[in-house]
Every structure is written in C-alpha cells, then in structure tokens.
Amino acid sequence: MRGRIMSVIKNAWLGPLDNPKYLKPYALKFNLNGHEKKWELAKTFDSVAVLIYNTERKVFVLVKQFRPAVFCKSEAAKTVPWNPETPPVNEYSTEPGKTWELCAGIIDRDDKPEEIAIAEVHEETGYKVSITDLVKITRLVNGVGTSGAMQHVYYTEVVDSQHVSEGGGLAEEGEVVEVVEIPRNDIETFCYDESKPKPPGCMMACLWWLNNHSHLNK
After folding, report:
1. In this structure, what DSSP letter does residue 162 have?
2. Which pLDDT score is estimated for 169?
C-alpha cells in the first residue's frame, strides 16, 4: 500500500452551496404525456477511469479516497452541524467516507480523454503509462437521475519498473489518494464485498476483466 493516508477531518459543517466550481444545479421543465414536470439536475464534468493490472505481481492497482458525499450518507455525519453560528470544533474519522475506486479524474481541460487518463494514472498511482498502453473498455453514464455525466473507462497493464513516483494525488491541490492492491484471485470477491464501498464503474471494469481474461485467473 502506498500513498498518504488521511485519518480525520476537522471542523466540519454543512451549508448551502455558494459559487460552485464542479457542480451547477439547474432544472429541466417539460410536459410528459400531459403532466407538467420539473426535474432537478446538476451539470458536472465528464470523467475517465482506468483499471490497472500489475502483470508481474498479479495484483490490481486501485485507489481509496475520502468522498464527502459518501461520508454525508453515513451515521457519523448525523452529528455534523448545519450552518453553525460559530465555527464548529469537531473531528471525524474519514473511514465512513472512504471508497475503493479505479484511478480516475474529471475531464476539465481540452486534452483528449486518453491523455487525461495517463496523467491520472501517474498522479494517483505513480505508474508511467502511454496512450498506446490503454485499452478502451467502454463509455458509461453516471448519475442518470441527476447529471448524466459520461465516464470513459480504460484498462492498462503495468510492471514494477513503470512505478516511477510515489503517486498519491497532487498534494498542492490537497488530494489525498491511498494506493491499494487487490490480488488477482480475490477480485471477484472484492466486487461483491459490501464492506468495501465502490462505484458501479469499478465493479463493471473488474468483472469485464474476469470475462475477458478468465484464462489468467486459473
């Protein structure tokens, strides 16, 4: 396991969203079969995600991150104050908000998805790969009820010599990414392990690997 591990968050509070940078709420108003509708939506960036497999050590390279949205659905978040009059003094473990994910990133610049994908692999995991190393798995839709954002999902294989830096995300941007490895023979069990929260795209990519590389899993 590599990366900087964040154990707690401090001085947490909930409040309205001011000057959003990555998410813009809006509504679609329409008439469907005679019924007036208003659907609450959020404009977000499309993204890329990469399933990484180390062929030398036969492990999948994934990441763990603290996700505020997941934390806010946990029991721990029930005590987080809403709009306190004075800044709160509190401390919460990040564990209820940590998810197991593919290496991923948003498409927030004009680079091609493949270019962003290889940059994210390096930033988050420390592996150096090229565009020609990527295999496209599929393009899927996230947040079908809210954003409809697209995610480009890729697969790549690496060896230890391609691990050229620590990874862990961009420290200057406050990213804290924990690199984790799942043995090849454990990947199906991992997919259905509810104690390890994960996005559907992560499960899909791992099951894709099992369907297409089952001969390597014997």
Report:
1. G
2. 73
Locate the DSSP E strands across 5-118.
8-10, 23-32, 35-44, 47-54, 59-66, 91-93, 98-101, 103-106
Q: Which two tokens stand for residue 18?
A: 């001011």
What Å distances lie between residue 115 and 5, 16, 110, 197, CA to CA? Answer: 27, 35, 10, 28
Distance CA 60, CA 158 (A): 10
pLDDT band at 166 (very low <50, low <70, confident <90, very high): confident
Report how far residue 12's alpha carbon sits from residue 93's, in angstroms, rounded to the nearest whole number: 11
d(CA 76, CA 92): 8
Q: What is the dihedral of CA 70, 202, 204, 44, to 10 degrees?
A: 60
Structure tokens at 178: 């924990």
Selection from 188, 144, 170 nearest residue 65 by Cα: 170
Report the C-alpha gap between 111 and 179 in whole angstroms. 25
Q: What is the pLDDT of residues 94-142, one digit of tens each?
A: 999 999 999 999 999 999 999 999 999 999 999 999 999 999 999 999 9
Per-residue exposure over 190-200, b if at least 16 CB sit within 10 Å of its own CB, e if not: bbeeeebbbbe
Per-residue CA distances from 73 to 78, 79, 82, 109, 183 (Å): 8, 12, 15, 30, 29
Q: pLDDT tens across 62-83, in order?
A: 999 999 999 999 999 999 999 9
pLDDT for the residue 1: 42
Go through the domains of the chain in sequence order and give each one's CATH number: 2-13+21-217 (3.90.79.10)
